[in-house]
Amino acid sequence: MPGGGAAGQALFVAYGRSATTPLVASQGNSHYDGLQVKIERRSAHGISLMSSYSFSKSIGMCCNDNSDGNLAIPITSYLNLNRAVSGFDRTHQFHVSAIYESPFGKGKTFATNGGPVAMVLGGWGLSGIFSAYSGLPFSVTDSGTILNAPNNSQRADQVKATVDMPRGVGVGQPWFDPTAFVPVKTPRFGTAGFNILRGPGLGNMDASLSRTFAVRESFKLQFRAEAFNFTNTPHFSLPASNISAVSFNPDGSIRSLGNFAQITSVSAVGRDGIDERVFRFGLRISF
Question: Is residue 186 over pLDDT 90?
Answer without folding.
Answer: yes
